[in-house]
Amino acid sequence: MERKIISVGALMGITAIILGAFGAHALKKLLSGDQLNAFETGVKYQMYHALFLLFLGVNSFLSQKAKKMIFQLVIFGVIFFCGSIYLLSTKPVMGIDFKFIGIVTPVGGVILIAAWSVLLWDVWKAKR
User: Fold this and answer.
1) pLDDT along the chain (128 residues), means of 10
2) pTM
3) Is there a contact between 112 and 69 (Cβ–Cβ < 8 Å)?
4) How many whole angstroms separate alpha carbon 46 and alpha carbon 74?
């Protein structure tokens, strides 16, 4: 399980760096300042959660059940939160108005909060 968590964390980190560079260079001339800031917010949160997964993968204090739940929550949270931000902020480039998925962004945020909450809960209840 740890290998899988660390691998996904590394993949998320790699794609966050690629998307960050893409935003800073290729999208800079195509997006408004607000759209570019939103895109960068998605990149930041993706990287924060990539690092969270790396921490999770090397941590021996947490239960396997908590690790699995956190792992799944982070994946879905990043897809919903960051993915929707990427789509919403790149409307001028994509040519598609993804406004209809705007509700997905806060749902993704709640899922990410749940992942951190599982971490907190597992640490508090641990008798190790």
Assistant:
1) 93 96 89 90 97 94 93 98 93 81 93 97 82
2) 0.89
3) no
4) 9
Round to whole Å and give the CA distance between 73 and 36. Answer: 26
Residue 98 φ then ψ, to 5° = -90, 25
State the Cα torsion 120-105-21-71 to the nearest 10°.
30
Structure tokens at 87: 């789509």
Residue 51 buriedness (CB in 10 A; 0-12 / 13-18 / 19+):
middle
- Residue 39 near residue 23 (C-beta atoms within 8 A): yes
Length of the chain: 128
